[in-house]
Amino acid sequence: MNVSTGLFYLFSIIMLAAAFRVITARNPVHAVLSLVLTFVQAAMIWMLLKAEFLSLTLILVYVGAVMVLFLFVVMMLDVNIERLRTGFWTHFPLAAMVGVFIALEMAAVLMGGFRVSDAPSSVATVVASGAARASDAKELGLLLYTRYLYPLEVATAILLVAMFAAIALTLRERKDSKHINPGDQVKVKARDRMTVVQMAATKPQASATVVANAETKA
Fold first, then answer.
1. Sign of the alpha-carbon dihedral angle for 67, 13, 95, 91
2. 37 with 14: CB under 8 angstroms?
3. Residue 98, Cβ neighbours under 10 Å: how many?
4. What is the pLDDT along the chain (218 residues), one digit of tens a residue?
């Protein structure tokens, strides 16, 4: 067993353990962190399979953006764990049957795909010629900016319009919201914030004996 095979088994074991932890963790934050670990191990396996673009995309998009958003939402929400687990064992048999059925389907597909076959002609030609393998990121870039250049420009134009629309909707003034100009806050001075009001000096309160005597004389 070489180093790549050993790393593959190591990453696979950690990924399976983290995925199992995702569905068994009682704390949602721990479940999200376990899912992040699962994605990282999957990215490492893709790196071993020389799929650099997919590996980096998984790290940047899912771990760096989507899972951070999930973690932020889970930490901000006040999730009642006990109420969510009410009736868990009631629906467990049905859920277990569905899980076993999905696992059998995945096993059938994976076992059918692990068959030794001859290499494609293009790969065999590259190996026979001894040419260096180009990275998949470079090949994808060449394909996008040559054959699919116009669809790529259309997609970028749509995303640009969507970004401008989101900014316009965010910056529009609403009548039911209070808006304060930061420039006015900066220009404000101390004398504008506080006003000194002249008031008469306080007088001592008359004692109860003096008030009683005044009422008796009256």
1. negative
2. yes
3. 10
4. 788 888 899 999 999 999 999 888 888 888 888 999 999 999 999 888 888 888 888 888 888 888 888 888 877 776 666 666 677 778 888 888 998 998 888 888 777 765 555 544 444 444 444 445 567 778 888 888 888 989 989 999 999 999 999 888 877 666 666 767 777 777 877 777 777 778 777 776 656 666 566 666 65
The total of other beta-carbon atoms located within 10 Å of residue 128's CB is 8
**Is residue 165 included in any domain, yes or no?**
yes
User: Of 79, 104, 121, which residue is a domain's last?
Assistant: 79
Q: What domain range includes position 163?
A: 134-170
Number of domains the chain is built from: 2
Q: Looking at the whole model, is its pTM more than 0.70?
A: no
CA distance 165 to 100: 46
Q: Examine residue 203 and state whether it is found in any structural domain, yes or no.
A: no
Residue 215 included in any domain: no
C-alpha to C-alpha distance for 163 and 159, rounded to whole angstroms: 6
**Closest by CA position to 20, among listed 7, 31, 4:** 31
Length of the chain: 218
Residue 43, domain CATH: 1.20.120.1200
* Residue 206: inside a domain: no
Residue type, 202: T
Beta strands in the chain (DSSP E): none
